[in-house]
Amino acid sequence: MRNLAALVLAAAAAALPAAAAPAPTGAELFARSDKGFCIACHQVPKGAGPATRSDLGPALEGRRMRELGRAALRAIVVDPMRANPGTVMPPYGRHRILDDAEIDRVVDYLDALP
Ligand code: HEC
Predict the structure, then answer these.
(1) Residue 39 CB–ligand 1 contact under 6 Å
(2) Rounded Cα–Cα distance for residues 5 and 30 (Å)
(3) Whose alpha carbon is nearest atom 17 of ligand 1?
(4) Ligand 1 centroid from CA 11, angstroms
(5) pLDDT digits 0-9 by tens, 75-93
(6) Percent over 70 (pLDDT), the chain
(7) Separation of 23 CA from ligand 1 center, angstroms?
(8) 87 Cα distance to chain centroid
């Protein structure tokens, strides 16, 4: 019985680090090469993310993002091919590169860009 309890505790402890890892922020999802890697194509204003020379996609800045609005931003990230079938931007939602909650955080990040 004591061994069983120890085993259960050990299993719970082993499962903890993954469960407790904080979810990546919108900024992290935007930059990380294993997530959105949006910085491969887009620049953001100084201080809002890593400085790059990427120019495959337009530079993203806050005023334009807020003009587009959250619904349009979400639609672009989910599936930019709906608006432009020839785009090189990946359909992050349709291809499940990012999940719904991650897309929400990326949209928060875009909406708050300087
Ligand atoms: C492979 C290059 C590439 C990647 C990676 C990429 N995009 Fe794009 N993105 C583009 C291009 C090119 C456009 C221009 C519109 C088009 O092609 O339809 C665009 C357009 C946009 C727009 C609209 C900009 C405007 O002013 O109208 C937003 C917002 C955007 N991308 C956000 C993102 C986000 C967020 C990510 C990561 C989750 C991302 N992009 C990843 C290439 C990329």
Answers:
(1) no
(2) 42
(3) 87
(4) 42
(5) 999 999 999 999 999 999 9
(6) 83
(7) 23
(8) 19
